[in-house]
Model the fold of this input.
Amino acid sequence: MEYNTSQLCDTYADLIDVIDPIFSNYGGRHSFGGKVVTIKCFEGTGLIEQVVATDGIGKVLVIDGGGSTRRALIDINIAETAANNGWEGIICYGSVRDVDTIEEIELGIQGLVSIPVGANDNEFGESDVAINFGGVTILPDDHIYADNTGIILSADPLDIE
Done:
């Protein structure tokens, strides 16, 4: 489904929060949205790999990677696994790598920057917790919508039709 965050902001101004404009689009899907699943981790991909291997239909994985620009939390393997399991997208408060191949994947991916250095595969971190970045607090089961213009957050699903 296509989302227009500008129109959603106009229609639902009192129901949404706007995440600070610090993200860039890396995936093959430039508009995506769904129910939030959260992860909080730092420079380790093990927990991310576990979560994207589960059913992601109608869901967006939102990762608080501590804003690290030293090591990428999202790579081609994670992107392919997420796409194969039906995830709508990934928003990563951290870095992305393999950007030329990731843009061919039918998955929305937004991250801070790209870097060629990958993170380690440790499983340290937490899932299904409140996370905070970009001027908002993001809760599991919130609803998030993203496009090239920005990212918006709502406690409830927005009527897009």
